[in-house]
Every structure is written in C-alpha cells, then in structure tokens.
Amino acid sequence: MKKEINIIFFGAPGAGKGTQAKKISQELSLPHIDTGSLIREAIGNKTELGVKTQQFVESGKLVPDELVIDLIKEKLKVLKDKDFKGFILDGFPRTIPQADALKNMLRELMLELTCVLNIQAPEDILVKRLSSRKLCSNKNCGAIFNLITKKPKEENKCDICNSPLYQRKDDTEEAAKERLSEYHLKTAPLEKYYREQNKLVDINGTKESEDVYNEIIKTLP
Ligand SMILES: [Zn+2]
Fold first, then answer.
1. Would you put residue 166 in left (φ > 0), alpha (ψ -120 to 50) or beta?
2. CA-CA distance, 87 to 215, in Å (whole number)?
3. Is 33 exposed, middle or buried (0-12, 13-18, 19+ CB in 10 A)?
4. Mean pLDDT of 33-40
5. Ion ligand 1, residue ranges at CB < 5 A
6. Which of 94, 150, 177, 207 is catalytic?
7. What is the C-alpha separation between 192 and 197, in angstroms, rounded?
8. Is the bond leading into 64 cis (omega within 30 degrees of zero)?
9. What is the pLDDT of residues 59-109, one digit of tens each?
10. Are the C-beta atoms of residues 8 and 116 closer than 8 Å to each other?
C-alpha cells in the first residue's frame, strides 16, 4: 500500500508558504486545506457545522478551535472515502492547543502527520517582500504582484487587465515588522512543539520559488 502524504505548511508572512503549498498541492494532487476557504465552503454548503460556523462569522466572533477542528475532520472524512493520497494543511494550527486538538483528531481518523514544513527566511528579507506588494486596482481582477518576487511586466500596470497597481496601507515596512513580531510571538512555541516531535523540516525560503519547491520535494517520502 502506498503511504499517503500528510503535510502542514508553516512559515512567516512573506516566506512564500502559500505559493509553495499551492504548487505542491497541484503537482502531487494533494488537497490543499486552508481554514479560510474551508469555513467559506462549509457556510456555502449549509452543512450542520456550516450553519454553526456562520453564526460566529456573522456576529463577528472568532470561530472557536473545536469548530475549526470539526470542519477539518469533516473534510478529511470526505477525502478519505475517495482515493486518498493525503492532504496539505495551511494556516492551521497556529497555537499549541490547536496542535494538540489536531493531533487527537488525526489519531481518531488513523492518519499520521508526515511532516511540518517550516519555510524560513530572515526578517529583513520578509520585511522587504511584504512591503513590496502591489495589487491590481480593478476589483474584479484582484491580481497580486510583488516587486521582488513577482514583478509585473510593465511598471505599475496589471499583467492581466492593464489596470494601474496600488500599494495597500498595511503593506508598509512598519506594518510588516509588526505582523512578523506577532507571528513569531505566537508560533515560536509551535515550532518547538513540532521540532520536539521530530516532525519539523526546515526549508530555506530565501531562494527562488522553483528552488524552494525542489527542496521541498526532496524532503518528501
Ligand atoms: Zn488586474
């Protein structure tokens, strides 16, 4: 029996985690589970959990951990019924209690975590990347560019729809530094948690996207 690949993607904002998770998901045909889309999907499908989730979202409250875990569980159960190859979890867990809950849930489903990919890049690179984002001003397009990692073909013009690009107020250096310090504060314990369980795999996120991808592929069974 071929073993499935169950991965968590971990990394600071700007480390390229989302890009890599998407790419690995496409190349290995592994379902990409990010909690934001999962919540939207459940609400849209009006499942029992979706209705519960909607109540929190509508009242502007944070969706509680147990509910998020239940949503992931529901999703994994559906996936397991088909030709199951594994999953990619992105944006969850973010805290130790979430990680513990996830561990118990995976055990119940008899799934084992293959590894936690820790995409790393030094602070100065992250700040630079985060403050170089440019967004398409056309709301129907919404393309995202980055003057360092994903340059538009023409300066300040969207490749897709030719609309002018703009910079978001919270994509400044100062805001980036704040986001990063908050990230490190919250997730540093989680890094230690997975390292102690021999699940953490450090990936050098400073290289070109293609090289980062190849390094990830090499670490997978
Ligand atoms: Zn555009």
1. beta
2. 19
3. buried
4. 91
5. 136, 138, 141, 143, 158, 160-161, 163
6. 94
7. 9
8. no
9. 988 899 999 999 999 999 999 988 899 999 998 998 899 999 999 999 999
10. yes
CATH number of 5-121+181-219: 3.40.50.300
Residue of 198, 191, 196, 8 whose CA lies nearest to 96 = 191
> Nearest CA to 89 among 211, 182, 206, 199?
199
107 classed as catalytic: no
Asked whether the predicted pLDDT for residue 1 surpasses 50, the reply is no
Give the tokens for residue 123: 């602070």
**Rounded Cα gap, residues 1 and 20, in angstroms:** 27
Number of helices and strands in the chain (H, E): 8, 8
What mean pLDDT is reported for the chain?
Answer: 92
- The question of whether 168 is a catalytic residue gets the answer yes
Q: Are 165 and 145 in contact (CB under 8 A)?
A: yes
Question: Global pTM?
Answer: 0.84
Q: Catalytic residue among 75, 133, 134, 199, which?
A: 133
Using alpha carbons only, give the angle 157, 163, 168 rounded to the nearest 5 degrees: 80
Domain parsing of the chain, residue ranges: 5-121+181-219
